[in-house]
Amino acid sequence: MLATSPIMAFVATVNSDQSRAFYESALGLRLVSDDPFAVVFDCAGTMLRIQKVERLEPHPFTALGWQVADIETAVSDLESKGIAFEKFPFVEDPHGIWTAPGGARIAWFKDPDGNTLSLTQFPEET
Q1: C-alpha–C-alpha distance, residues 91 and 28, integer Å
Q2: Which of 1, 64, 79, 86 is the most exposed place for a label (fewest CB within 10 A)?
Q3: Cβ-count burial of 44 within 10 angstroms (0-12 exposed, 13-18 middle, 19+ buried)?
Q4: pLDDT, tens digit, for every residue of 49-69?
Q5: Across the strands, what pairs with 50?
Q6: Is 44 left (phi over 0), alpha (psi -120 to 50) or beta?
Q7: Which residues contact 65 (CB under 8 A, 6 or more apart)?
C-alpha cells in the first residue's frame, strides 16, 4: 500500500526562526511554507516538516541525512557557512569524514536544535 506513496521526513525545533534560517540559508533548501505548526521545505522532492514544539530532547543518533556525490566539497561548502562537523574519536579525518567498512564516507553535523544530520557519499559501483 505505501510502497508507491511519497515519504515525508520530520524533525522538531523549539526556535523556528533560527531553524528556518539554518535549513533555508545554510543548507539551501527551498521553503514551501511556514505556519503555526511547522516550517516545511522541499528536499529534492521529499517534504521535510520541521515541527514547532515547546520542548525537545534531540535523539543521540542521526535524524536526517543527505546522499552527496562529493563529500569533501559538500563539507567544505557547509563549513564555509559556519557549520561545524562533529569530531568523533574513531574518525581521523580533520573534517570529521569517516569511511565505513563498506566504503561509504559519512560526516555528521547538528542543526540549531541539536538534531544530528549527516552527509553520505556512497562508493561508486563497479
Answers
A1: 27
A2: 1
A3: exposed
A4: 999 999 999 999 999 999 999
A5: 11, 39
A6: left
A7: 117, 118, 119, 120
Radius of gyration (C-alpha) of the chain in whole angstroms = 15
Cell, residue 122: 556512497
Q: Phi first, then psi: give them for residue 82, nearest 5 degrees.
A: 90, 10
Summarize the confidence of residues 82-107 as an average pLDDT. 94
C-alpha distances (whole Å) from 25 to each of 16, 34, 41, 66 are 13, 15, 12, 16
Predicted confidence (pLDDT) at residue 125 exceeds the cutoff of 80: no
Of the pLDDT bands very low, low, confident and very high (cuts 50, 70, 90), residue 124 is confident
Cα dihedral value 58, 63, 69, 72, nearest 10: 20
